[in-house]
Every structure is written in C-alpha cells, then in structure tokens.
Amino acid sequence: MKLNAVRKLLIVRLSSLGDILLTTPMIRTIKNQYPGIEIDFVLRKEFHDLLRLNTCINNIFFYDSNKEEVGRLGSMINDNGYDLIVDLQNNFRSKILLKKPGCPVISFRKNDLKKFLLVHFKINLLKNSLSIAERYAQTVEDFELDNEGLNLFTDKKPFLFNDSDKNKIGLCPGAKHLTKRWTKEYYIALGKLLEQNGYQVILFGGKDDKLLCSEIENQLVNSINLCNDNDILQTAADMEKCKTIFCNDSGLMHTAAAMKIPVIAFFGSTVKEFGFSPYKSKSLVMENNNLSCRPCSHIGRNECPKKHFKCMLELSPQLAFNNLKSFLNT
After folding, report:
1. Span 96-118, pLDDT tens digits
2. 263-267 and 283-287 beta bridge pairing
C-alpha cells in the first residue's frame, strides 16, 4: 500500500533505544512528504522519552506484555481506523498484538538468515547492506528517506549549562553485553591520555553503568560523571557540550548521533554490516578487521568464545587517541 492513500498510520517498534531512534528518519520523511498523514507509534513505556517531543507523531501508545494489556491495546488499534500499520518489530510479540488489525499490515524484513551465515559460517552476504534506518524505509512501497540523520528532541538543560569550555570529550563505556564493551582499563587509559592533552572527560551512562562510570571516574583527575537513572533526555542535553564522544556499539552511540555529536565507536563482536553503525553523522568506527572470528554475534555475548577478546584488546587507547586527533581535523 502506498503512502499517498494513507490518512492514519501506525508504526510499531517496541524497543530498544537505538532501534527506536533509527525509526526517526522514516517518521520525519513521511511527515514532510505527506503532511496530512496522522502518525501514531507503539513502544514500551520506558522508551517514551525518545519520541515524546517529536512533533511528527500524533499519539504514542505503550506496549505491556501482560496478556490483558496486549488484548486491550490490540482492540484499541483495531478501533482506531488505521489505513496502514508498519510493523518494524516483526516478532512474536508484535504479531500477537496485531493479529486482528482491521487494516493492512506490512512488516520489516529481517536479515536473520544472512546474519546467521555471517556469524556462524563467515559467509558474508551483507557486504552492501544498508543502515537499519534505510531498511526500515524499504518496508513501505515506493518510499525513500531524506538525507538527514536521526532525531532526538530534549527539553532538559545541560548539567554544565554555564560552562563554555569546548574541550570536553565524552566517554560512554557501557553496553548490555560484555563483548560489545571496550574494556574499563582502556577507557581509563584513554581518559588519562585525554587529560594529559588538555581535555576534560565527561562520563555518560544509564542505571546499569553507574558502577563502571564511577570506577573510571575514580582513576581520573578532572572528569565529570553524568551517569544517571536512564534519563535519556538529560543525557542527550549533556552530550551537546562535547566535541566528540567515544562509545561502544550501543544505544548511547545512536543518542550521540541523534544529537549531531561526532562519534568514535568501538565495534568488537559485532560488525558494521549488521546495519547499526552511526547513521548519517560524523563518525569513525574502530574495529579489528584482522580476525577470522568476527563477528561472533549480532547482539553481543557475555564472554569471548575464543577467550582472547582480541577484537577489543587490539584496539589500544593510544590508537583511539591518535584517531581522535585526525578525526577532529577532518
């Protein structure tokens, strides 16, 4: 179904931070090209802030896995008179939710087989793969994205509101899985190199990153720890004070990209071909392309299956700092 025949559109992407931010180019482009379309969105409540201030969206509905709540939301969707539903989640949960939609449903086509072949057999059929943001857009017939990046709107003031110093570098050391994290020791070493060269380190993270950020902060001289309780809009506002942000392949990488902050990202067990590298932002992905064991997962693991973790350990702090110097000059 083409968008020129749509009056009311529902987009479903339940989680997670990065995946939802990667829907924002699609949302923006649809609204700009078809301003008469009403766009509603379904997500999990904890990700509400990612879209709360996005004026392209009319209504946001919360998904709860409770069976009764799923039934209630499904009935409401059926009663809302949508002309089209775009299921960007495309898993068991979204299929149950949309089992009686009352209108056409088009679903995001995942590359599960190609990812499986790359991870387990190193057969790479994803060499020319697009960003997930672009692949989301391909779900809709005869539709192309504009040339802009991600969107995230914040109503928070930066913690360092009155600080005009431009020599701040952000570090986002967290990620859900261990093999997606550059090591704590390397972040500390990089932080020391930055401080020795006149930069101030700003640490970012969520509730699960508090201990890690605190341990890094304690080893540095003049860092500021802005790790918080998953207040993503505060983090986004604070990131705007940084010249560049070092991060892992994580949701905060996409947050920085959405705030138009230059990003240097460490990719360990994952690779750019999966489609999650920073989208249309000034960025550099640091990865070890000399290992036959990469990628060992498309989402990350809790330990290196080869026990050597060379994908991260061979990306040294000195190399990261040298890359920063050339990155800032481009």
Report:
1. 999 988 899 999 999 999 999 99
2. parallel
